[in-house]
Amino acid sequence: MALASAGAYGTNIVSAQIAGQAGLSGPLLVFYRVFIMLALVGAAVAIWRSSLAVPRAERRALLLFGLTSALVGSAYLSSVAFLPVTVAAVVFFTYPVLIVLAEPLVTRTRFQPARLAAACAAFVGVAMVVGPDLHGLDPRGLLLALGASLGAATQFFAASALGRTPLAARLLWSHLLILPVTAVILAITGGFLPPTAFALAPIAAAITIGGYLLGFLLQVIALTRISPGAAGLAFCAEPVCAVLIAALVLGERLAPLQYAGCALVVAVLVINVTLEQMRRSPAPA
What radius of gyration, in Å, describes the C-alpha atoms of the chain? Predict the structure, then answer.
């Protein structure tokens, strides 16, 4: 589920770029995708009468999850106003390493050097895939991208602590927290357009919103089933999927270094999944 979520988010990036070229801004797409998620979850709750109760012990984690989810989107989106997108992406994808380093402290699990080595190798692969341009760095952009990375790491830990909260409650309450933040960003940027504006790029807009809906749903489910460290590593597949889809759909040419980075990330993911299965397999009697 985590890998599928990363793939959906990667598709989302490419379609958002196409929609942006047609005149649909990033903040506008973010606002509508959150609004649509709320509408869909509300309809599902009304039809199936799903419980929205949150156990008292998990309310703080749910609040943290919603706030950090809003922080990740807003800070990452804002960072590209001061930094090249490639630099912002590399700084942002330090979060799997942060998760692995913090996991023994937050979850009291045993530190796993192999997982840290995998996270560092995946980060190197992501840097090779994205190919950052180190010119024109702005401290404001670096701080925003780093804030998004810290927010993502915190988001993963908060989501993993919501095992007893119903799925509908996790989706509804978190997006009720995210929506005001996206509305403020859209108001500041002054780019609000009515839903009819999606006619400028209907397919790209639909894929962008659909990719987010599917990606977030699978992410929320996955983070209560596997450890934050394993999930963080799986999400290193997101930029790889984005780059490969851009090459297929947009005709972008990849350099040999980018292909090598893709291969490195895929190899790390395969090895990590194999190691996770070995850890979960019961020892023979």
Answer: 19
Candidate ranges 75-79, 87-91, 188-192, 234-238; pick with highest mean pLDDT: 234-238
Q: Which residue has the tokens 């597949």?
A: 237
pLDDT of residue 282: 55
Q: How many angstroms separate the Cα of 259 from the Cα of each of 131, 235, 251, 254?
A: 11, 18, 15, 7
234-258 per-position pLDDT tens digit: 999 988 898 888 888 878 788 899 9
Q: What is the DSSP string of 65-127?
A: HHHHHHHHHHHHHHHTTTS-HHHHHHHHTTHHHHHHHHHHHHT-PPP-HHHHHHHHHHHHHHH
Nearest Cα to 64, choosing from 168, 183, 165, 159? 159
- Around 114, how many Cα atoms within 13 Å sit in the side-chain half-sphere? 11
Contacts of 256 (CB under 8 A, 6+ apart): none
> Rounded distance, CA 138 to CA 10, Å?
26
Q: Write down the pTM of the prediction.
A: 0.89
51-60, 77-86, 204-213, range with the lowest pLDDT: 77-86
| Token pair 């973010």 in the structure block, residue | 30
DSSP type of residue 281: S
Tell me the per-residue pLDDT of 180-208, one tens digit each, with 9 for 90 and over.
Answer: 988 988 888 777 899 999 999 999 999 99
Q: Are 145 and 66 in contact, with CB atoms under 8 Å apart? A: no
Which string of DSSP letters, residue by residue, matches 211-273? HHHHHHHHHHHHTTTS-HHHHHHHTTHHHHHHHHHHHHHS-PPPPHHHHHHHHHHHHHHHHHH
CB 170 within 8 A of CB 62: yes
Q: Select from 124, 154, 128 the least CA-distant residue to 232.
A: 154
